[in-house]
Write a structure and sequence with these properties.
about 60% helix
């Protein structure tokens, strides 16, 4: 084990050598890209609850929701009036 600079190789366990935090973070990132982010953008509850959504996703979902709230229909912008009222005012 020259690479790790270990002189004793008797009780070597691969789990002690690996940087588990790196691999867990990388795996969580892959799960977010493949599963949780697309689910959130489709308004589906997080299917993998152990992998939290990224921080930026909440802001994007709030902006998306505001877009739908601010939409107005043509009937909201224009009101109908009686024909006789229109003639009397002009």
């Amino acid at each position: 084990m020259k690479l790790l600079r270990l002189s004793i190789v008797d009780n070597l366990d691969i789990r002690e050598i690996l940087d588990w935090n790196y691999y867990i973070d990388h795996f969580n990132s892959c799960i977010q890209k493949i599963i949780t982010i697309p689910a959130a953008l489709q308004n589906i509850r997080n299917p993998v609850s152990r992998v939290p959504h990224p921080d930026w996703l909440h802001k994007r979902l709030v902006e998306k929701k505001k877009l739908y709230i601010n939409k107005k229909y043509i009937t909201d912008v224009f009101n109908s009036i009686n024909k006789q009222t229109y003639i009397d005012n002009n």
